[in-house]
Amino acid sequence: MISRLPAWVWLGAGSLAVVAGMVNVVGYLGFEHQAITHLTGTTSLLGAALAEGDGRNALRLSLMVAAFVAGAVLSGIIIQDSTLRLGRRYGVALMIEAALLALAVPLLHRHQMAGAALAAGACGLQNAMTATYSGALVRTSHLTGMFTDLGVFLGHRLRGMPSDQRRLWLCLVIIVGFLLGGVAGAMLFRHLGYDTLYLPAALTGSTGIAYVGYRLLRGGTGTLSS
């Protein structure tokens, strides 16, 4: 059970879900119609490509999987913890995510898979960065776990069992945030194309810079390593 949920967890989870929703819809609407923020469908397509002997497609899909995992590895190197708490190196991670998204744009304009891979790496970094809070998984780049938890909650309520209201609301915040990000991303893509990714890059980058500045003002340079 989540005993408490500070405002920064709500705000961070919702905002990052919006970012992921925007990034993923750009991937779907782009030249390869490629999911970026999650790997279940990508892995299934990789299996199909291997079964059909489609080497080019298998290589492309393997690149997406490897890029996402590499982003998660980078998060592990930077943050060095599996529990959400202020004081971790979230600002640095957010700035790196922003840089990866921004670098992806010109590559996507040239229809290069390296652009999608950079975006996938950014999402892997983000997803690993959020990790857990009070024993509850907080995943902002895909919704399978959130919808699963929502179903379990409803099942418990139907049986009259106790349920964690805060966990329910956290799931709903992430689901709604991801959906709104998808809506906004799709609308912007009609006018901006791949330049749409500059918006989530700006959001994560500015937040990262502000967070690093805040930690430096509060406790000096040593806070970045804690």
Automatic annotation (TrEMBL):
The chain crosses the membrane at residues 7-29, 35-51, 58-78, 90-108, 168-191. Pfam families: DUF1275 (PF06912). InterPro entries: DUF1275. Keywords: Membrane, Transmembrane, Transmembrane helix. It comes from the Bacteria. The keyword Thylakoid does not apply. This is DUF1275 domain-containing protein. It comes from Marilutibacter chinensis. The lineage of its organism: Bacteria, Pseudomonadati, Pseudomonadota, Gammaproteobacteria, Lysobacterales.
